[in-house]
């Protein structure tokens, strides 16, 4: 039923709790899994300038940090992929830079993803207002089926 399943991982143990569910779906439907990690790009703000929006920071130090983060993220995804591959599942790993919610939705739509698997961190109240919710953004902005779990701490 699902040929390509995207599994959203942010490096946390909470997010990793989606993996057994994605594994079962992949085995059941002989699906390919795409493990996705989105690194947030630091932006600057334009204080005191009405209507001005922020933009990405492109200093030498930030570029080096982004490159290091990309290597670490790729290694992390490869570690997560190994047991899945050992179970006979085809797995690709993808690291993107950008805003997590937007990047997930855009990648899924452009790459023919048929199911998005994601864990919510279960934030509520002020914490959710401050940190937002990637899972909520994906739910509201993607037209694809979504496998969503609320992990246990």
State the main characteristics.
153 residues; alpha/beta; Rossmann fold; two-stranded antiparallel sheet; 7 strands; 44% helix; 22% strand; globular
How would you describe what is shown here?
By secondary structure, the chain is α/β, with parallel strands linked by helices. It has a single domain, classed as Rossmann fold (3-Layer(aba) Sandwich). 44% of the residues lie in helices and 22% in strands. It has six helices and seven strands. It has helices at residues 13-16, 19-29, 60-86, 100-110, 125-131, 134-141; strands at 4-8, 32-39, 43-44, 55-56, 91-97, 115-119, 146-149. The strands form two sheets. A five-stranded parallel beta sheet has the order 5-2-1-6-7, with helices on both faces. Strands 3-4 form a two-stranded antiparallel sheet. Helix 4 runs parallel beside helix 6 (134-141). The longest helix is centred in the middle third of the chain and has 27 residues, at 60-86. The protein is globular. The chain starts with a strand and ends with a strand. 25% of the residues are buried. The model has no long low-confidence stretch (mean pLDDT 86).
Walk me through the topology.
Blueprint: E1 4-8, H1 13-16, H2 19-29, E2 32-39, E3 43-44, E4 55-56, H3 60-86, E5 91-97, H4 100-110, E6 115-119, H5 125-131, H6 134-141, E7 146-149
Parallel strand pairs: 1-2, 1-6, 2-5, 6-7
Antiparallel strand pairs: 3-4
């Amino acid at each position: 039923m699902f040929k390509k399943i995207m599994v959203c991982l942010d490096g946390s143990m909470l997010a990793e709790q989606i993996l057994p569910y994605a594994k079962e779906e992949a085995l059941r439907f002989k699906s390919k899994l795409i493990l996705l990690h989105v690194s947030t790009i630091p932006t600057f703000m334009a204080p005191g300038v009405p209507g001005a929006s922020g933009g990405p920071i492109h200093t030498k130090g930030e570029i080096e940090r982004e490159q290091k983060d990309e290597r670490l993220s790729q290694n992390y995804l490869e570690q997560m992929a190994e047991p899945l591959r050992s179970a006979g599942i085809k797995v690709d790993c993808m690291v993107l830079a950008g805003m997590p919610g937007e990047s997930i939705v855009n990648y899924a739509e452009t790459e023919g993803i048929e199911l998005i698997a994601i864990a919510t961190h279960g934030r509520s109240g002020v914490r959710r207002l401050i940190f937002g919710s990637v899972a909520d953004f994906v739910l509201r902005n993607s037209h694809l089926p979504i496998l969503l779990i609320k992990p246990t701490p």
